[in-house]
Amino acid sequence: MPHAPSRRPTILDVARVAGVSKSLVSLALRGGPGVSESARARITAAADQLGYRSNALARGLVQGRTMLLGVLLTDLANPYHTDVVAGVEEAAAEAGFGVLLAHGRRDAERLATQLGTLVELNVDGVVAISSWVDGDALRAAARRTPVVVVGRPEHPPEGVDTVANDDAAGAGQAVAHLLDLGHREIVFVTTSRRPAAQGRRRGYETAVRGAGLTPRVLAVEHADQLHAHAAPLVASGATALLANNDLTAVALLDAAHDLGVPVPGRLSVVGYDNSTVAALVRPRLTSVDQPRPELGRTAVRLLLERAVDGRTADRHEVLRPRLVPRTSTGPARP
Description:
- Helices cover 43% and strands 16% of the residues.
- By secondary structure, the chain is an alpha/beta fold.
- The protein has 3 domains: 11-54, 434 Repressor (Amino-terminal Domain), CATH 1.10.260; 66-165 and 292-321, Response regulator (Rossmann fold), CATH 3.40.50.2300; 167-290, Rossmann fold (3-Layer(aba) Sandwich), CATH 3.40.50.
- The strands form 2 sheets. It has a 6-stranded parallel beta sheet with strand order 2-1-3-4-5-11, with helices on both faces.
- The longest helix is centred in the first third of the chain and has 16 residues, at 79-94.
- The protein is elongated and about 85 Å long.
- Mean pLDDT is 91; it is low at 1-5.
């Protein structure tokens, strides 16, 4: 017959084993002042012996906080999102907060539902790593807890902070790099109509026109459609492709490989995000680096400014990207 699980040790058990009061145990485990080193050592040893772990939820109820931040992201399969989450987790841990993760699965309705669930769990703030979340859902959530969007929502609701990179500037850096390599037939390839992709397209078009060239854009709904367009692109004389993100760029590398088109010998490819995949593919992908962990850390700082410091004015921070050249780009060849 299976044994029933033993009950979880409490702060009273720690006080009994250490031979001190419950209040002294609470003070010591919080790292508070007024506890002698010998008493603190006895209390710590007793807690370790019993396997006691403080109840963060109960402590949060006393403090009026749960000490948890919610993180909502569009796509767990996209390394850009998971890189931002890593920055959120680091900054949250440094501030003494835990993190709850919710996945929207690239579905706007599910994202709104997941956002509501995080708010119902009384998190102390939400970082939404997505520009897909419905504005009304963001507005409703922000009435109950601080909300920061990492990305570029089309119409940021009042009461919601945002942090993003300068998409147009990043695309401009990519075009400048390709122009320096002698490319004159540069095509912008996008699989998204979201504001970030549109900003990158505008940056591309401005930079290309500034060089006296004509912009060329290929827009498709899904990356798996790129194979059908790769051959016509090459046949049209394109020598360089700037993708709206790294996953689109990797799909272009795959299509070029299947066609037998050498990269960068015949075709140069640039991605955007500098996600972890950029350094793993062959050839290694030249990409515009969004400071992904820093985006996450900045989002946490903005949350805590509202939740802890009481800031009420909206903030919209923009971080500067930088190009990371690798082996997927090379000199243009006739």
